[in-house]
Prior knowledge:
The protein has 6 helices and 7 strands. 38% of the residues lie in helices and 17% in strands. Pfam families: MIT (PF04212), MIT_C (PF16565).
Amino acid sequence: AGVETVKRAVQLDVASRFQESLVCYQEGIDLLLQVVKATTDEAKKRRYRQKISELTFLSDGKYHKQIRIEENATGFGYEKLFQEYVTEIVSEVWVEDPYIRHVHQASRYLLYNFLRFCEMLVKGPCKVKTIHLLTSYDEGSGRSQQMSALEDIKESLSNYGVTLNIDFSSSIHDREIRFNNGWMIKIGRGLDYFKKPQGRFSIGYCDFDLRPCHETTVDVFHTKYTKKT
């Protein structure tokens, strides 16, 4: 499987389909690493390590793609936006957003948006085991509601074998999502780029692909290391 993935990566690279080739390179590296661990033949290990070194060199550069979501645009649900990057090898996710709160704020449903994002991960092709959330505390009386909702999400995720680690920061400003396959996505509005639905029984209330969006910019990066040190 590793060899076939590498061949596919090279074909995509030659075709200048760099985004897809980077995904294949990363998956090929991970598959070959698994082979190295299971191989007792030292000669084979050396050959595999050499190939891994070559692939790492090819995939080591940074990749940047920018997506502009226009005002009132539709078709940008989480599955559509993230599907290219949430591959089978993804097992750990980092979400940094200072505003995962305000369940009943007039224009935002960020806790529900975060829940929807988690649902996307659970039903996706990836095997996510850990989600790290860094956000800020809600102010005033909303804090207890925020904590209760996050604990409910945490408990629900545990039923699917997913651990949710929650941390808070009073100085966080950046909004970004990182996957342990090397992809990092920065959305100008964070997860809150959807407009408020017209009503509880209006089209787009449940299906985010049909929900109109606020204007925002999505920047997609690929780096060798995802987790910040």
